[in-house]
Amino acid sequence: MQPKHFEVVVIGGGPAGMAAALKAGETCGKVAIIERDSELGGILNQCIHAGFGLEYFEEELTGPEYAGRFIESVVDAGIDIYLQTMVTAISPDREITAINKDGVLRINAGAIVLAMGCRERTRGAITIPGERPAGVMTAGVAQRYMNIDNLKPGNRAVILGSGDIGLIMARRMHLEGIEVVGVYELMPFVNGLARNVKQCLEDYNIPLHVSTTVVEIIGKNRLAGVVVARVDEAGQPIVGTETRVDCDTLLLSVGLIPENDLSVRAGVNLNPVTNGPFVTAYLQTNIPGIFACGNVLHVHDLVDNVTREGEQAGINAVLFSRGELGSGEHAVRGGWQILTGANVRYTVPNYLEPDQKEKVGMFYRVSRPVASGCLQIGCNGKVILKGKPAAFRPGNMQRINLSPKILEQVDGDLILSVEEGA
Description:
The structure is a single chain. With 422 residues, this protein is α/β, with parallel strands linked by helices. The protein folds into 3 domains: 1-119 and 256-333, 3-Layer(bba) Sandwich (FAD/NAD(P)-binding domain); 122-254, FAD/NAD(P)-binding domain, CATH 3.50.50; 334-422, Immunoglobulin-like, CATH 2.60.40. The protein contains 9 helices and 28 strands. The chain has helices at residues 15-25, 63-76, 123-126, 139-147, 164-175, 194-201, 261-265, 303-321, 404-407; strands at residues 4-11, 31-34, 50-52, 61-62, 80-82, 86-90, 95-100, 103-114, 118-120, 136-138, 156-160, 179-185, 208-210, 212-218, 225-230, 243-246, 249-252, 256-258, 290-292, 336-340, 344-348, 351-352, 360-366, 370-379, 382-386, 390-392, 398-402, 414-420. Strands 1, 2, 5, 6, 7, 8 and 19 form a 7-stranded mixed sheet that branches. Strand 12 (179-185), helix 6 and strand 13 (208-210) form a beta-alpha-beta unit. The longest helix is centred in the C-terminal third of the chain and has 19 residues, at 303-321. It is globular.
């Protein structure tokens, strides 16, 4: 089969992928999206709750409404769309192998944007002991059952984990007449957005139990209950605090993992903290011409940020395909690293170009709640940026822009930290 050629190929048709393709399509005519599902939109198609687009569109939309606006734009832009097409391999020289009902596709790309999203962490990943009855599922699966398939997952539910999907599903199940016994969180703090705690739990009197986890699953054919226990500072169950909670449904909201199987096979280096690629300020991985954005890069809490990150990746992919962007070798050697300091879990991007002149948008998350903290960025022993005192929560991803004036002061690796009480 004669290989097809595109200037930019985007793998994944969710909000990040569509934003990248649209932005790339503004300056080049050969752009394609490869999506394994039967329609574009990604996870947004099953997120029927409101709260999307408050920053990007400055109005409140549901997930399908937000996706719908981009789908219409993608179609109108004449971007090539491959649906129900699975990418099986990406070579370092940007040759893509994919399969669909027509057979095997060979596609050569001037640049590739990875936008495959993420998947949920399952029961096996957190090793809950006990039987394997029906009724144990991830929060996203339950969301699809209810919002897409119109199926009721159970009558009395327990939710393990306080991620945003779990909080939203607590409200969704309550509104559908399912009794939500409570939300149990291993950590001593909530991992979801503060607005979801208020709107999904407090407004409906759904109990939240922190420093508590499920230690046993009870039931043969169908879940009959779970045993919960308090945990110590190390996250280990405290003997004697076990309590049985009767339920027929257990929803797991215990984290998301970027979908990077393809990335690894292509030779992309992954950050062990985020499970997404290490990237430069241009969102370029260590493989020249392969970029990453959205939840495949790091897990976001707002789709508006996903969209903007996708647009940036799309612009830079076009620049690379036309030879107007560096080779990306600085991601392997010779670049300045962005390191994490006190109370910072990770940053994106991870590298700066030595000749970086344009403004750089940086995302980061704190590792624990800091009631009164101050962001600081240091370089070679001097503080080049100090933020205002503020409260920081792990559930809220933070963003800061490094202006050209600040970048002029960079002459080595950066250390980003949140100093308590500063």
